[in-house]
Amino acid sequence: MDKRKIRVLLGKIGLDGHDRGIRMIATWLSKGGMEVVYMGTHQTAERMARTAIDEDVDVIGLSFQGADHVPLIRMMADQIKRNNLEDRLLVVGGNIPRRDIEVLKQMGVDEVFPSGTAMSKCVAYVRENAFKRRN
Question: In degrees, to the nearest 5, what angle opens at C-alpha 20 toward C-alphas 66 and 75?
């Protein structure tokens, strides 16, 4: 496994301003020894991709509370392809209906953490999978 700290980019694309969950996971990841770049709310897929490149992150994490996660992930997946970021782990959390999990995975999401998932499970997944495609 890589010896450097895992670098995680977190943000919310779209108009959803509910950020309690993503701020909590940022704290958990940070306490878990990872470097977190937190972009906050109201981001665009383009800005997230550009920051992923500029910050050389290993993981891109997005959070959704509204019902717009499928089209927004489609935009993010497009930016990931356009910017050759397929070697980065893409994780999604928040208010995601279980019926949409497979749809998101088919679009390129590595893992989905619906509301209620234990923070420790999210941290463990990132720790175990962050470098899988980057080595």
Answer: 40
CATH architecture classification, 7-129: 3-Layer(aba) Sandwich (3.40)
> Is the model's pTM score more than 0.85?
yes
How would you classify residue 56: left for phi > 0, otherwise alpha for psi between -120 and 50, otherwise beta?
A: left
Report how far residue 87's alpha carbon sits from residue 100's, in angstroms, rounded to the nearest whole number: 23
Which strand ranges, in their side-by-side order, compose the sheet holding 59-64? 35-38, 7-11, 59-64, 89-94, 111-114
Rounded Cα–Cα distance for residues 99 and 4 (Å)? 36
pLDDT digits (tens, 9 = 90+) for 81-115: 999 999 999 999 999 999 999 999 999 999 999 99
SS3 76: helix
Taking the C-alpha atoms of residue 113 and residue 129, their distance in angstroms, rounded to an integer, is 14
Q: How many residues does the chain have?
A: 135
Cα(41)–Cα(130) distance, integer angstroms: 23
Contact between 108 and 80 (Cβ < 8 Å): yes
Q: What is the mean pLDDT of the chain?
A: 93
